[in-house]
Amino acid sequence: VVVCLIAVLALVWSMPDIPKTVKTSELCLPSEIGPLKCGSTVDLLHDYLEREIATKYDEVKRQNQKKQENHLKEVSARLMNIYDKSFWEMKPAAKLTGKEQPDLRKTDSNADMVPIKEWRNGRELYDTKGFMRYGIRYRNGRLVVPVNGTYFIYSNLDFFESCNPSSGLPNVKDINKPIKHGIFKFNIFEGEEEELVSNVQPHTISTNRYYNSYNSYVSSLADLKAGDELSVKVSNISY
């Protein structure tokens, strides 16, 4: 409202004399392409005020953004003096290692990919190189993100499949169905699961004719929101 009043007052003070040939239903105002433009009072006034208000709004927005940046710098400097470098190192992080998986549910038997549902977490991580820090939570085989931000996510898995000793071919129902491994995210407010990164490998003939081994590593930077749940999925949990 204040911006509109300022624009109207500026309009009244700076408005040039209207030519005598202009009708009472018309108005002359400064335009974008010339010093003066005459036309319909309503349309011309609307366009002029819209331009002026947009200019003032952009100016106020830039001033507010500059104030926020200066405030952040002041706060950051104050926190650094108090906590030194440890403050900026307190970022959410977690690293889990796998464990024996439960039997596959009937509802997942025909799924293209199934989640890894069991990971060592909590006290189970004491004897491993895993950890959970600064707000990361574990829930039903998923890691829950505590704050918005850009995260580096990764997953490394080893797969083993049995093969037919007579031919070395993988002992699977469909050899044309590849081995898949990926990281997914889910947020209850969005209601849909999204694939963040994945790896696909074809089956190969075993050199020892008894089993095949595969390694799959996926990683990516991901923009995550507070409450996002991360899970790891594979095409065949028995691997």
UniProtKB/TrEMBL annotation:
<keyword id="KW-0202">Cytokine</keyword>
<dbReference type="Pfam" id="PF00229">
    <property type="entry name" value="TNF"/>
</dbReference>
<keyword id="KW-0472">Membrane</keyword>
<dbReference type="GO" id="GO:0005125">
    <property type="term" value="F:cytokine activity"/>
</dbReference>
<protein>
    <submittedName>
        <fullName>TNF</fullName>
    </submittedName>
</protein>
<dbReference type="InterPro" id="IPR008983">
    <property type="entry name" value="Tumour_necrosis_fac-like_dom"/>
</dbReference>
<dbReference type="GO" id="GO:0005164">
    <property type="term" value="F:tumor necrosis factor receptor binding"/>
</dbReference>
<dbReference type="GO" id="GO:0005615">
    <property type="term" value="C:extracellular space"/>
</dbReference>
<dbReference type="GO" id="GO:0016020">
    <property type="term" value="C:membrane"/>
</dbReference>
<comment type="similarity">
    <text>Belongs to the tumor necrosis factor family.</text>
</comment>
<dbReference type="GO" id="GO:0006955">
    <property type="term" value="P:immune response"/>
</dbReference>
<feature type="domain" description="THD">
    <location>
        <begin position="92"/>
        <end position="239"/>
    </location>
</feature>
<dbReference type="InterPro" id="IPR006052">
    <property type="entry name" value="TNF_dom"/>
</dbReference>
